[in-house]
Design brief:
Helix content: 40-55%
Oligomer: single chain
Structural class: alpha+beta
Number of domains: 4
Shape: rod-shaped
Strand content: 15-25%
Distance between the termini: 80 Å
Largest sheet: 5 strands, antiparallel
Number of strands: 18
Protein backbone atom coordinates (compact mmCIF):
# COMPACT_ATOMS: atom_id res chain seq x y z
CA UNK A 1 0.00 0.00 0.00
CA UNK A 2 1.37 3.45 -0.99
CA UNK A 3 2.34 6.00 1.65
CA UNK A 4 1.53 8.84 -0.74
CA UNK A 5 -1.18 11.26 0.39
CA UNK A 6 -4.66 10.80 -1.08
CA UNK A 7 -5.39 13.94 -3.07
CA UNK A 8 -8.22 12.50 -5.16
CA UNK A 9 -10.72 14.87 -3.57
CA UNK A 10 -8.70 17.69 -5.11
CA UNK A 11 -8.53 15.96 -8.51
CA UNK A 12 -4.97 14.56 -8.39
CA UNK A 13 -3.32 11.18 -7.98
CA UNK A 14 0.21 11.17 -6.60
CA UNK A 15 2.58 9.10 -8.76
CA UNK A 16 5.88 9.42 -6.91
CA UNK A 17 7.86 11.54 -4.52
CA UNK A 18 10.29 14.01 -6.13
CA UNK A 19 11.93 15.40 -3.01
CA UNK A 20 11.39 16.19 0.60
CA UNK A 21 12.50 18.29 3.51
CA UNK A 22 11.27 16.30 6.46
CA UNK A 23 12.56 18.79 9.03
CA UNK A 24 10.59 21.61 7.46
CA UNK A 25 7.59 19.40 6.75
CA UNK A 26 7.78 20.06 2.97
CA UNK A 27 7.44 17.24 0.41
CA UNK A 28 7.33 17.50 -3.38
CA UNK A 29 5.29 14.98 -5.41
CA UNK A 30 4.70 14.19 -9.05
CA UNK A 31 0.96 13.87 -9.67
CA UNK A 32 -1.44 13.35 -12.56
CA UNK A 33 -4.89 14.92 -12.88
CA UNK A 34 -7.96 12.72 -12.46
CA UNK A 35 -10.63 12.59 -15.22
CA UNK A 36 -12.90 15.37 -13.98
CA UNK A 37 -10.03 17.83 -14.24
CA UNK A 38 -8.95 16.57 -17.64
CA UNK A 39 -12.52 16.75 -18.98
CA UNK A 40 -12.82 20.38 -17.88
CA UNK A 41 -9.56 21.10 -19.71
CA UNK A 42 -8.01 22.91 -16.81
CA UNK A 43 -5.12 20.48 -16.27
CA UNK A 44 -4.01 17.99 -18.92
CA UNK A 45 -0.44 17.07 -18.02
CA UNK A 46 1.47 15.86 -14.97
CA UNK A 47 2.03 18.46 -12.28
CA UNK A 48 4.27 19.10 -9.33
CA UNK A 49 2.57 19.37 -5.96
CA UNK A 50 4.50 20.91 -3.10
CA UNK A 51 2.86 19.88 0.16
CA UNK A 52 3.56 21.88 3.30
CA UNK A 53 2.65 19.67 6.28
CA UNK A 54 1.89 22.26 8.95
CA UNK A 55 0.01 19.75 11.11
CA UNK A 56 3.26 17.89 11.91
CA UNK A 57 4.55 18.44 15.43
CA UNK A 58 7.92 19.60 14.12
CA UNK A 59 6.47 21.93 11.48
CA UNK A 60 6.63 25.70 11.76
CA UNK A 61 3.43 27.53 10.93
CA UNK A 62 5.44 30.67 10.31
CA UNK A 63 6.50 29.09 7.01
CA UNK A 64 3.01 29.84 5.75
CA UNK A 65 4.17 33.40 5.13
CA UNK A 66 6.82 32.09 2.74
CA UNK A 67 4.18 30.02 0.91
CA UNK A 68 1.97 33.04 0.48
CA UNK A 69 4.98 34.98 -0.78
CA UNK A 70 5.85 32.28 -3.31
CA UNK A 71 2.26 32.09 -4.59
CA UNK A 72 2.16 35.85 -4.87
CA UNK A 73 5.37 35.86 -6.92
CA UNK A 74 4.46 32.92 -9.16
CA UNK A 75 1.02 34.27 -10.05
CA UNK A 76 2.61 37.25 -11.78
CA UNK A 77 5.29 35.36 -13.71
CA UNK A 78 5.05 34.10 -17.27
CA UNK A 79 8.38 32.91 -18.62
CA UNK A 80 9.33 29.62 -20.36
CA UNK A 81 12.18 29.17 -17.89
CA UNK A 82 9.87 29.33 -14.84
CA UNK A 83 7.31 26.52 -14.30
CA UNK A 84 3.81 28.08 -14.28
CA UNK A 85 1.73 28.37 -11.17
CA UNK A 86 -1.44 26.26 -11.59
CA UNK A 87 -3.17 26.64 -8.26
CA UNK A 88 -3.24 25.73 -4.59
CA UNK A 89 -5.47 24.05 -2.06
CA UNK A 90 -5.62 23.18 1.61
CA UNK A 91 -5.54 19.69 3.07
CA UNK A 92 -6.18 18.25 6.48
CA UNK A 93 -2.44 18.23 7.20
CA UNK A 94 -1.36 21.43 5.55
CA UNK A 95 -1.25 23.30 2.27
CA UNK A 96 -0.44 22.30 -1.35
CA UNK A 97 0.94 24.37 -4.20
CA UNK A 98 0.49 23.09 -7.78
CA UNK A 99 2.98 23.95 -10.53
CA UNK A 100 3.72 22.92 -14.08
CA UNK A 101 5.94 19.80 -14.24
CA UNK A 102 9.20 19.87 -16.16
CA UNK A 103 10.85 16.53 -16.87
CA UNK A 104 14.30 17.79 -15.90
CA UNK A 105 16.55 16.84 -12.97
CA UNK A 106 18.18 19.52 -10.88
CA UNK A 107 21.86 20.43 -11.15
CA UNK A 108 22.35 18.77 -7.76
CA UNK A 109 22.07 15.43 -9.55
CA UNK A 110 25.58 14.41 -10.75
CA UNK A 111 25.78 14.97 -14.48
CA UNK A 112 28.42 15.86 -17.03
CA UNK A 113 28.39 19.14 -18.94
CA UNK A 114 31.12 20.48 -21.14
CA UNK A 115 32.21 24.10 -20.54
CA UNK A 116 30.31 25.42 -23.57
CA UNK A 117 27.11 23.80 -22.28
CA UNK A 118 27.71 25.41 -18.90
CA UNK A 119 27.99 28.77 -20.62
CA UNK A 120 24.67 28.00 -22.32
CA UNK A 121 23.15 27.31 -18.90
CA UNK A 122 24.55 30.62 -17.65
CA UNK A 123 23.01 32.51 -20.57
CA UNK A 124 19.60 30.86 -19.97
CA UNK A 125 19.66 31.65 -16.25
CA UNK A 126 20.73 35.23 -16.91
CA UNK A 127 17.83 35.63 -19.35
CA UNK A 128 15.49 34.46 -16.59
CA UNK A 129 17.02 36.96 -14.17
CA UNK A 130 16.79 39.74 -16.77
CA UNK A 131 13.07 38.97 -17.04
CA UNK A 132 12.66 39.06 -13.26
CA UNK A 133 14.70 42.25 -12.82
CA UNK A 134 12.85 44.06 -15.62
CA UNK A 135 9.44 43.51 -14.02
CA UNK A 136 7.77 46.36 -12.19
CA UNK A 137 8.42 45.95 -9.39
CA UNK A 138 11.48 43.74 -9.85
CA UNK A 139 11.59 40.23 -8.43
CA UNK A 140 14.60 38.83 -6.54
CA UNK A 141 14.86 35.04 -6.27
CA UNK A 142 17.43 35.04 -3.41
CA UNK A 143 18.01 31.28 -3.35
CA UNK A 144 19.75 30.37 -6.60
CA UNK A 145 21.68 27.13 -6.15
CA UNK A 146 22.09 23.82 -8.04
CA UNK A 147 19.04 22.26 -6.30
CA UNK A 148 16.78 25.05 -7.63
CA UNK A 149 17.94 24.88 -11.26
CA UNK A 150 16.42 22.18 -13.49
CA UNK A 151 18.04 21.20 -16.80
CA UNK A 152 16.61 18.69 -19.27
CA UNK A 153 18.45 16.62 -21.89
CA UNK A 154 18.12 19.42 -24.46
CA UNK A 155 19.80 21.93 -22.08
CA UNK A 156 16.52 23.72 -21.41
CA UNK A 157 16.87 25.53 -18.07
CA UNK A 158 14.18 26.15 -15.45
CA UNK A 159 14.44 28.16 -12.24
CA UNK A 160 12.26 26.85 -9.40
CA UNK A 161 11.51 27.36 -5.68
CA UNK A 162 10.58 30.99 -5.21
CA UNK A 163 9.98 30.48 -1.47
CA UNK A 164 12.51 33.19 -0.56
CA UNK A 165 11.71 35.48 -3.48
CA UNK A 166 11.02 39.11 -2.84
CA UNK A 167 8.98 41.57 -4.89
CA UNK A 168 10.32 45.08 -5.06
CA UNK A 169 11.69 46.50 -1.81
CA UNK A 170 9.45 44.48 0.50
CA UNK A 171 11.09 43.59 3.80
CA UNK A 172 12.22 40.04 4.62
CA UNK A 173 12.33 38.72 8.15
CA UNK A 174 15.53 37.39 9.71
CA UNK A 175 14.02 33.91 9.92
CA UNK A 176 13.40 33.89 6.17
CA UNK A 177 16.93 35.04 5.42
CA UNK A 178 18.35 32.25 7.52
CA UNK A 179 16.70 29.69 5.24
CA UNK A 180 18.99 30.61 2.40
CA UNK A 181 21.89 28.34 1.52
CA UNK A 182 25.27 29.33 2.89
CA UNK A 183 27.86 29.44 0.16
CA UNK A 184 25.29 30.54 -2.42
CA UNK A 185 23.84 33.51 -0.58
CA UNK A 186 25.41 36.87 -1.31
CA UNK A 187 27.20 38.30 1.74
CA UNK A 188 24.77 41.23 1.97
CA UNK A 189 21.89 38.75 2.10
CA UNK A 190 23.65 36.64 4.71
CA UNK A 191 24.00 39.69 7.00
CA UNK A 192 20.48 40.99 6.21
CA UNK A 193 21.72 44.11 4.49
CA UNK A 194 20.38 45.95 1.47
CA UNK A 195 19.59 43.57 -1.41
CA UNK A 196 20.26 44.67 -4.98
CA UNK A 197 20.00 43.23 -8.47
CA UNK A 198 23.60 42.05 -8.05
CA UNK A 199 22.61 39.75 -5.17
CA UNK A 200 21.16 36.96 -7.34
CA UNK A 201 24.29 37.10 -9.50
CA UNK A 202 26.34 35.75 -6.59
CA UNK A 203 24.21 32.61 -6.28
CA UNK A 204 24.29 32.10 -10.04
CA UNK A 205 28.07 32.51 -10.14
CA UNK A 206 28.56 30.07 -7.25
CA UNK A 207 26.31 27.54 -9.03
CA UNK A 208 28.39 27.80 -12.21
CA UNK A 209 31.62 27.42 -10.23
CA UNK A 210 30.29 24.19 -8.71
CA UNK A 211 29.47 22.86 -12.18
CA UNK A 212 32.82 23.80 -13.68
CA UNK A 213 34.85 22.35 -10.80
CA UNK A 214 32.67 19.30 -10.23
CA UNK A 215 32.00 20.38 -6.63
CA UNK A 216 28.74 19.22 -5.00
CA UNK A 217 26.70 22.05 -3.56
CA UNK A 218 27.04 20.59 -0.06
CA UNK A 219 30.85 20.80 -0.43
CA UNK A 220 31.09 24.38 -1.68
CA UNK A 221 32.81 25.37 1.58
CA UNK A 222 35.90 23.55 0.26
CA UNK A 223 36.27 26.31 -2.35
CA UNK A 224 36.08 29.17 0.14
CA UNK A 225 39.48 30.50 1.23
CA UNK A 226 40.56 32.37 4.38
CA UNK A 227 39.27 35.65 2.92
CA UNK A 228 35.83 34.05 2.37
CA UNK A 229 36.26 34.18 -1.38
CA UNK A 230 35.46 31.39 -3.80
CA UNK A 231 38.90 30.19 -4.90
CA UNK A 232 38.50 28.00 -7.97
CA UNK A 233 40.94 29.29 -10.58
CA UNK A 234 43.47 26.49 -9.99
CA UNK A 235 40.79 23.88 -10.67
CA UNK A 236 39.91 25.11 -14.17
CA UNK A 237 43.26 25.58 -15.99
CA UNK A 238 41.75 25.05 -19.45
CA UNK A 239 39.21 27.86 -19.22
CA UNK A 240 39.95 31.15 -20.92
CA UNK A 241 41.10 34.02 -18.75
CA UNK A 242 38.10 36.18 -19.68
CA UNK A 243 35.66 33.45 -18.69
CA UNK A 244 37.40 33.00 -15.32
CA UNK A 245 37.48 36.77 -14.78
CA UNK A 246 33.75 36.93 -15.56
CA UNK A 247 33.04 34.22 -12.99
CA UNK A 248 35.23 35.93 -10.39
CA UNK A 249 33.33 39.17 -10.90
CA UNK A 250 30.04 37.35 -10.42
CA UNK A 251 31.08 36.13 -6.95
CA UNK A 252 32.81 39.24 -5.64
CA UNK A 253 32.10 39.79 -1.94
CA UNK A 254 31.08 43.42 -2.33
CA UNK A 255 27.98 44.14 -4.48
CA UNK A 256 29.67 47.16 -6.06
CA UNK A 257 32.43 44.89 -7.42
CA UNK A 258 29.96 42.58 -9.20
CA UNK A 259 28.04 43.31 -12.36
CA UNK A 260 25.26 45.77 -11.46
CA UNK A 261 22.51 43.55 -12.92
CA UNK A 262 21.82 40.44 -14.98
CA UNK A 263 21.58 42.32 -18.26
CA UNK A 264 25.08 43.77 -17.88
CA UNK A 265 26.45 40.36 -16.91
CA UNK A 266 24.82 38.79 -19.97
CA UNK A 267 26.30 41.38 -22.32
CA UNK A 268 29.75 40.73 -20.87
CA UNK A 269 29.36 36.95 -21.17
CA UNK A 270 28.11 36.63 -24.77
CA UNK A 271 31.43 37.38 -26.60
CA UNK A 272 33.57 35.26 -24.25
CA UNK A 273 35.16 32.01 -25.38
CA UNK A 274 34.76 29.51 -22.58
CA UNK A 275 37.43 27.16 -23.82
CA UNK A 276 40.24 28.84 -25.69
CA UNK A 277 43.47 27.01 -25.20
CA UNK A 278 46.84 28.77 -25.26
CA UNK A 279 49.19 28.48 -28.21
CA UNK A 280 52.73 27.63 -27.14
CA UNK A 281 55.68 29.25 -28.90
CA UNK A 282 59.38 28.77 -28.21
CA UNK A 283 62.09 31.35 -28.82
CA UNK A 284 64.17 28.70 -30.59
CA UNK A 285 63.29 25.34 -32.19
CA UNK A 286 65.92 23.39 -30.24
CA UNK A 287 68.57 23.93 -27.59
CA UNK A 288 72.29 23.65 -28.36
CA UNK A 289 74.54 23.50 -25.32
CA UNK A 290 78.29 23.80 -25.87
CA UNK A 291 80.73 23.23 -23.01
CA UNK A 292 84.20 24.73 -23.35
CA UNK A 293 85.75 23.40 -20.15
CA UNK A 294 85.79 20.02 -18.49
CA UNK A 295 82.99 19.59 -15.93
CA UNK A 296 81.43 22.95 -16.84
CA UNK A 297 77.86 23.74 -15.80
CA UNK A 298 76.31 25.43 -18.80
CA UNK A 299 73.14 27.52 -18.44
CA UNK A 300 70.92 27.73 -21.51
CA UNK A 301 67.96 30.11 -21.73
CA UNK A 302 64.74 29.74 -23.69
CA UNK A 303 61.58 31.82 -23.69
CA UNK A 304 58.20 30.12 -23.84
CA UNK A 305 55.23 32.33 -24.67
CA UNK A 306 51.51 32.17 -25.33
CA UNK A 307 50.14 33.72 -28.51
CA UNK A 308 46.48 33.73 -27.37
CA UNK A 309 45.97 36.81 -25.23
CA UNK A 310 42.79 35.86 -23.36
CA UNK A 311 44.19 32.58 -22.08
CA UNK A 312 46.72 31.78 -19.39
CA UNK A 313 49.54 29.35 -20.16
CA UNK A 314 50.43 26.80 -17.52
CA UNK A 315 53.52 24.70 -18.16
CA UNK A 316 55.61 22.07 -16.45
CA UNK A 317 59.05 20.91 -17.63
CA UNK A 318 60.28 17.33 -17.57
CA UNK A 319 63.24 15.52 -19.13
CA UNK A 320 62.19 12.56 -21.27
CA UNK A 321 63.55 9.17 -20.28
CA UNK A 322 66.63 7.88 -22.10
CA UNK A 323 68.23 4.45 -21.99
CA UNK A 324 71.64 5.88 -21.07
CA UNK A 325 70.44 8.12 -18.24
CA UNK A 326 70.01 6.96 -14.65
CA UNK A 327 66.36 6.55 -13.52
CA UNK A 328 64.82 9.90 -12.70
CA UNK A 329 61.53 11.44 -11.59
CA UNK A 330 59.52 14.18 -13.33
CA UNK A 331 60.86 16.65 -10.77
CA UNK A 332 64.54 15.63 -10.80
CA UNK A 333 67.08 14.68 -13.46
CA UNK A 334 70.66 13.66 -12.84
CA UNK A 335 72.36 16.24 -15.08
CA UNK A 336 69.64 18.49 -16.53
CA UNK A 337 67.92 20.82 -14.08
CA UNK A 338 65.34 23.59 -14.43
CA UNK A 339 65.50 26.76 -12.39
CA UNK A 340 61.68 26.73 -12.28
CA UNK A 341 60.06 23.48 -13.40
CA UNK A 342 56.48 24.77 -13.14
CA UNK A 343 55.15 28.19 -14.02
CA UNK A 344 51.93 29.99 -14.91
CA UNK A 345 52.64 32.86 -17.26
CA UNK A 346 52.05 33.94 -20.85
CA UNK A 347 55.75 34.71 -21.28
CA UNK A 348 58.43 33.09 -19.17
CA UNK A 349 62.21 33.01 -19.41
CA UNK A 350 63.33 29.50 -18.51
CA UNK A 351 66.87 28.67 -17.41
CA UNK A 352 68.11 25.15 -17.96
CA UNK A 353 71.37 24.04 -16.34
CA UNK A 354 73.38 21.18 -17.86
CA UNK A 355 76.02 19.62 -15.59
CA UNK A 356 78.68 18.18 -17.95
CA UNK A 357 80.82 16.83 -15.10
CA UNK A 358 78.81 13.62 -15.33
CA UNK A 359 79.24 13.31 -19.10
CA UNK A 360 82.00 11.99 -21.33
CA UNK A 361 84.22 14.51 -23.09
CA UNK A 362 84.14 15.24 -26.81
CA UNK A 363 80.67 13.72 -27.17
CA UNK A 364 77.25 14.88 -28.32
CA UNK A 365 74.26 14.03 -26.15
CA UNK A 366 70.83 14.21 -27.77
CA UNK A 367 67.92 14.38 -25.35
CA UNK A 368 64.30 15.54 -25.34
CA UNK A 369 62.57 17.88 -22.92
CA UNK A 370 58.83 17.43 -22.38
CA UNK A 371 56.65 20.49 -21.86
CA UNK A 372 53.27 19.65 -20.32
CA UNK A 373 50.84 22.53 -20.87
CA UNK A 374 47.14 23.35 -20.91
CA UNK A 375 47.36 23.87 -24.67
CA UNK A 376 46.86 21.44 -27.51
CA UNK A 377 48.64 19.10 -27.71
CA UNK A 378 49.07 18.90 -23.96
CA UNK A 379 52.64 17.57 -24.22
CA UNK A 380 55.21 19.00 -26.61
CA UNK A 381 58.82 17.94 -27.17
CA UNK A 382 61.91 20.11 -27.41
CA UNK A 383 65.26 18.70 -28.52
CA UNK A 384 68.40 19.54 -26.57
CA UNK A 385 71.85 18.79 -28.01
CA UNK A 386 74.71 18.88 -25.52
CA UNK A 387 78.25 19.11 -26.93
CA UNK A 388 80.77 18.39 -24.18
CA UNK A 389 84.25 19.93 -23.96
CA UNK A 390 87.02 18.41 -26.12
CA UNK A 391 89.43 15.80 -24.85
CA UNK A 392 92.08 17.51 -22.67
CA UNK A 393 94.81 16.25 -24.97
CA UNK A 394 95.83 18.94 -27.47
CA UNK A 395 95.91 18.22 -31.18
CA UNK A 396 99.41 18.81 -32.57
CA UNK A 397 99.91 18.80 -36.32
CA UNK A 398 103.19 18.87 -38.16
CA UNK A 399 103.66 21.55 -40.81
CA UNK A 400 102.89 19.10 -43.61
CA UNK A 401 102.87 21.74 -46.31
CA UNK A 402 106.28 23.09 -45.25
CA UNK A 403 107.69 19.57 -45.10
CA UNK A 404 106.42 18.90 -48.62
CA UNK A 405 108.03 22.11 -49.88
CA UNK A 406 111.27 21.16 -48.14
CA UNK A 407 111.35 17.76 -49.86
CA UNK A 408 110.54 19.40 -53.18
CA UNK A 409 113.22 22.09 -52.67
CA UNK A 410 115.88 19.58 -51.74
CA UNK A 411 114.95 17.28 -54.63
CA UNK A 412 115.10 20.06 -57.22
CA UNK A 413 118.26 21.63 -55.79
CA UNK A 414 120.12 18.32 -55.54
CA UNK A 415 119.24 17.31 -59.08
CA UNK A 416 120.33 20.69 -60.52
CA UNK A 417 123.50 20.73 -58.38
CA UNK A 418 124.56 17.23 -59.46
CA UNK A 419 124.22 18.36 -63.07
CA UNK A 420 126.33 21.47 -62.38
CA UNK A 421 129.04 19.64 -60.41
CA UNK A 422 129.31 17.04 -63.14
CA UNK A 423 130.02 19.75 -65.71
CA UNK A 424 132.45 21.68 -63.46
CA UNK A 425 134.46 18.59 -62.56
CA UNK A 426 134.63 17.44 -66.20
CA UNK A 427 135.85 20.87 -67.38
CA UNK A 428 138.31 21.63 -64.57
CA UNK A 429 139.61 18.23 -63.54
CA UNK A 430 141.43 18.26 -60.23
CA UNK A 431 140.72 21.95 -59.80
CA UNK A 432 137.01 21.28 -60.15
CA UNK A 433 137.11 18.62 -57.44
CA UNK A 434 138.93 21.05 -55.14
CA UNK A 435 136.35 23.69 -55.91
CA UNK A 436 133.54 21.26 -55.09
CA UNK A 437 135.03 20.28 -51.76
CA UNK A 438 135.87 23.82 -50.77
CA UNK A 439 132.49 25.25 -51.79
CA UNK A 440 130.62 22.51 -49.95
CA UNK A 441 132.49 23.35 -46.77
CA UNK A 442 131.86 27.04 -47.35
CA UNK A 443 128.12 26.50 -47.91
CA UNK A 444 127.91 24.36 -44.78
CA UNK A 445 129.67 27.06 -42.74
CA UNK A 446 127.42 29.77 -44.16
CA UNK A 447 124.38 27.64 -43.44
CA UNK A 448 125.41 27.27 -39.81
CA UNK A 449 126.02 31.03 -39.49
CA UNK A 450 122.74 31.80 -41.24
CA UNK A 451 120.80 29.47 -38.99
CA UNK A 452 122.25 31.00 -35.83
CA UNK A 453 121.81 34.54 -37.12
CA UNK A 454 118.29 33.79 -38.31
CA UNK A 455 117.36 32.47 -34.89
CA UNK A 456 118.68 35.57 -33.16
CA UNK A 457 116.99 37.91 -35.61
CA UNK A 458 113.72 35.93 -35.39
CA UNK A 459 113.71 36.27 -31.61
CA UNK A 460 114.36 39.98 -31.90
CA UNK A 461 111.56 40.36 -34.42
CA UNK A 462 109.24 38.35 -32.18
CA UNK A 463 109.87 40.86 -29.39
CA UNK A 464 109.14 43.70 -31.79
CA UNK A 465 105.92 42.02 -32.89
CA UNK A 466 104.89 41.50 -29.26
CA UNK A 467 105.59 45.07 -28.20
CA UNK A 468 104.46 46.99 -31.28
CA UNK A 469 102.02 44.54 -32.82
CA UNK A 470 104.03 44.37 -36.07
CA UNK A 471 103.31 41.19 -38.04
CA UNK A 472 106.16 40.13 -40.43
CA UNK A 473 105.20 36.60 -41.34
CA UNK A 474 107.62 36.33 -44.28
CA UNK A 475 110.76 37.37 -42.40
CA UNK A 476 112.29 33.86 -42.37
CA UNK A 477 111.90 33.56 -46.13
CA UNK A 478 113.39 37.01 -46.67
CA UNK A 479 116.35 36.05 -44.46
CA UNK A 480 116.92 32.80 -46.36
CA UNK A 481 116.97 34.63 -49.70
CA UNK A 482 119.38 37.22 -48.29
CA UNK A 483 121.88 34.65 -47.02
CA UNK A 484 121.50 32.56 -50.16
CA UNK A 485 122.46 35.60 -52.24
CA UNK A 486 125.62 36.13 -50.15
CA UNK A 487 126.52 32.47 -50.62
CA UNK A 488 126.07 32.75 -54.40
CA UNK A 489 128.33 35.84 -54.62
CA UNK A 490 131.10 34.16 -52.63
CA UNK A 491 130.92 31.02 -54.78
CA UNK A 492 131.10 33.10 -57.97
CA UNK A 493 134.19 34.99 -56.79
CA UNK A 494 135.85 31.79 -55.69
CA UNK A 495 135.22 30.09 -59.02
CA UNK A 496 136.62 33.05 -60.91
CA UNK A 497 139.94 32.71 -59.11
CA UNK A 498 140.31 29.17 -60.47
CA UNK A 499 139.42 30.32 -63.99
CA UNK A 500 136.30 28.28 -64.25
CA UNK A 501 134.18 29.29 -67.19
CA UNK A 502 131.64 32.05 -66.62
CA UNK A 503 128.73 29.77 -67.50
CA UNK A 504 129.89 27.12 -65.04
CA UNK A 505 130.43 29.70 -62.28
CA UNK A 506 126.96 31.16 -62.86
CA UNK A 507 125.31 27.74 -62.78
CA UNK A 508 127.31 26.69 -59.74
CA UNK A 509 126.48 29.91 -57.86
CA UNK A 510 122.79 29.58 -58.64
CA UNK A 511 122.72 25.93 -57.62
CA UNK A 512 124.49 26.57 -54.31
CA UNK A 513 122.06 29.40 -53.59
CA UNK A 514 119.15 27.01 -54.09
CA UNK A 515 120.79 24.34 -51.92
CA UNK A 516 121.52 26.94 -49.27
CA UNK A 517 117.90 28.05 -49.31
CA UNK A 518 116.81 24.43 -48.86
CA UNK A 519 119.12 24.02 -45.88
CA UNK A 520 117.93 27.30 -44.44
CA UNK A 521 114.29 26.33 -44.91
CA UNK A 522 115.03 23.05 -43.16
CA UNK A 523 116.02 25.00 -40.07
CA UNK A 524 112.81 27.07 -40.43
CA UNK A 525 110.69 23.88 -40.58
CA UNK A 526 112.35 22.59 -37.42
CA UNK A 527 111.61 25.87 -35.64
CA UNK A 528 107.96 25.70 -36.80
CA UNK A 529 107.66 22.18 -35.34
CA UNK A 530 109.03 23.37 -32.00
CA UNK A 531 106.52 26.23 -31.96
CA UNK A 532 103.72 23.71 -32.39
CA UNK A 533 104.75 21.93 -29.25
CA UNK A 534 106.91 19.12 -30.60
CA UNK A 535 110.16 18.18 -28.96
CA UNK A 536 113.49 19.40 -30.35
CA UNK A 537 114.51 15.87 -31.23
CA UNK A 538 111.34 15.23 -33.29
CA UNK A 539 111.51 18.68 -34.91
CA UNK A 540 115.13 18.21 -35.92
CA UNK A 541 114.52 14.62 -37.05
CA UNK A 542 111.52 15.51 -39.25
CA UNK A 543 113.23 18.46 -40.93
CA UNK A 544 116.55 16.63 -41.34
CA UNK A 545 114.94 13.49 -42.78
CA UNK A 546 112.73 15.60 -45.10
CA UNK A 547 115.83 17.35 -46.48
CA UNK A 548 117.70 14.01 -46.70
CA UNK A 549 114.78 12.42 -48.52
CA UNK A 550 114.76 15.31 -50.99
CA UNK A 551 118.51 14.88 -51.55
CA UNK A 552 118.06 11.13 -52.13
CA UNK A 553 115.27 11.80 -54.61
CA UNK A 554 117.35 14.45 -56.39
CA UNK A 555 120.29 12.03 -56.75
CA UNK A 556 117.87 9.39 -57.90
CA UNK A 557 116.71 11.65 -60.70
CA UNK A 558 120.33 11.76 -61.90
CA UNK A 559 121.57 8.22 -61.21
CA UNK A 560 118.26 6.35 -61.42
CA UNK A 561 116.07 4.94 -58.63
CA UNK A 562 117.16 1.35 -59.25
CA UNK A 563 120.62 2.29 -58.10
CA UNK A 564 121.37 0.42 -54.88
CA UNK A 565 122.83 3.41 -53.07
CA UNK A 566 119.96 5.66 -54.14
CA UNK A 567 117.36 3.05 -53.16
CA UNK A 568 119.02 2.58 -49.77
CA UNK A 569 119.07 6.33 -49.24
CA UNK A 570 115.38 6.71 -50.11
CA UNK A 571 114.32 3.84 -47.85
CA UNK A 572 116.69 4.91 -45.10
CA UNK A 573 115.11 8.36 -44.97
CA UNK A 574 111.44 7.77 -45.92
CA UNK A 575 110.74 4.98 -43.41
CA UNK A 576 112.02 6.92 -40.35
CA UNK A 577 110.33 10.06 -41.68
CA UNK A 578 106.98 8.25 -42.01
CA UNK A 579 107.39 6.90 -38.50
CA UNK A 580 108.00 10.38 -37.08
CA UNK A 581 105.04 11.82 -39.03
CA UNK A 582 102.63 9.11 -37.83
CA UNK A 583 103.84 9.21 -34.24
CA UNK A 584 101.90 12.35 -33.05
CA UNK A 585 98.39 11.19 -34.11
CA UNK A 586 99.04 7.64 -32.95
CA UNK A 587 100.35 8.84 -29.61
CA UNK A 588 97.32 11.10 -29.17
CA UNK A 589 94.96 8.22 -30.01
CA UNK A 590 96.70 6.08 -27.39
CA UNK A 591 96.40 8.78 -24.76
CA UNK A 592 92.73 9.32 -25.59
CA UNK A 593 92.08 5.58 -25.26
CA UNK A 594 93.68 5.62 -21.82
CA UNK A 595 91.57 8.66 -20.87
CA UNK A 596 88.40 6.93 -22.02
CA UNK A 597 89.09 4.09 -19.64
CA UNK A 598 88.74 6.58 -16.80
CA UNK A 599 85.21 7.51 -18.03
CA UNK A 600 83.73 4.09 -17.37
CA UNK A 601 81.35 5.40 -14.70
CA UNK A 602 80.18 8.44 -16.67
CA UNK A 603 76.88 8.70 -18.54
CA UNK A 604 77.03 7.49 -22.12
CA UNK A 605 75.66 9.59 -25.02
Amino acid sequence: MSNFPNLSSHGFRVVKELGHNRTGGRVTYLAVPLPPLTQKGTVKQAVVIKQFQFARSDANWSDYDAIEQEIKVLRGLNHPGIPRYLGSFQTATGFCLVQEYKNAPSLAVPRSFDPDEIKQLAVSLLNILVYLQNRIPAVSHRDIKPENVLVDDDINVYLVDFGLARIGDSEMTISSVAKGTVGFMAPEQLFNRQISEASDLYGLGATLVCLLTGTPSIAISQLIDEDYRLNFKHLVPKLSIRWIEWLEKMVELKPKDRFPDAETALEALNPIYVIRVPEVKFSQPCLDVNAKRLGEKVIQKITISNAVSDTLLESRWEVASHVSDPPHTPDFHDWIQFEQAHFISNEALCKITVDTSKLMVSKTYEREILIHTNSQPETQRLKINVHTAPVPIPVKKLPYFSLSLLVLFATAATWVETMAWEKIVSNSGTVGVAIAIFVSALVAALGLVAAITSGLISKGMAKIRTRFGVRIKAFDTVASVFFAGIAAILVAKFGAQFRVSDAAITAFAAVDAVVFMAAFESEGVAESCRQRGFSKALAFGVSFLSAALGISLGIGLKLGFVNGIVLSGILGTSVPLATLILYPPLDRARRIANYRKLEGNLIKP
